[in-house]
Amino acid sequence: MSSPDITLYTAQTPNGIKxxxxxxxxxxxxxxxxxxxxxxxxxxxxxLEINPNGRIPALTDTFTDGQKIHLFESGGILLYLAEQYDKxxxxxxxxxxxxWYEMNNWLFFQNAxxxxxxxxxxxxxxxxxxxxxxxINRYVNETRRLYGVLDKRLRESTSGFLVGDHISLADISHxxxxxxxxxxxxxxxxxxxxxxxxxxxxQREGVERGRHVPxxxxxxxxxxxxxxxxxxxxxxxxxxxxGMRDDAKK
Length: 250
What we know:
Blueprint: E1 7-10, H1 14-26, E2 31-34, H2 45-48, E3 58-62, E4 68-72, H3 74-85, H4 98-127, H5 133-156, H6 169-178, H7 192-202, H8 205-210, H9 219-224, H10 226-248
Parallel strand pairs: 1-2
Antiparallel strand pairs: 1-3, 3-4
Helix pairs in contact: 1-3, 1-6, 4-5, 4-6, 5-7
């Protein structure tokens, strides 16, 4: 593989910072294009050429054939970075090993479980146009159940990581979501092993640098500041609901 020619298209979201954390842990050079999702930049024609689904994160690189490759979906991007650039297995494991398959278990657990369920919890707790107790209970409780699975896994881990003896895509894919548990109506104190894991990963230089891309990562501070949280919720709710209405017209 030639030298990286990576551009990351991202915003300050749990999915967005997965990729910047991985890039920082790998020590790869990359350019950043900040996408303003409040203005639907991700729905503009130029961006849809990169990700037809109109979501962040997305990434471009020069592939082995010398042509540009467009990548989207955070799990797919993480696997690309691991397979193309992680020759020393800093954030992954050799393909075909037990750890490789176990890492993928937890990567897809996040992509198919924690992310979608907690994302819906965010919506019903913070942004829904009306108070829907069924939606809140359904998604907050399912997020709590999934957190319980993670907590048990970490309780049984001898290394403090989800898989193997070092940080991997399994950990990186979850961290940004777990760190904003309170925004989703989940009390992280219910899950002591998961909370300790979150705090431990925060001490890593790669996580610390990557979480602040493309803008400061302040969710935990904002959760503690009721006035700031209410302001953010009102502003975000406005463009979230507008985006839903616009999508419904297409």
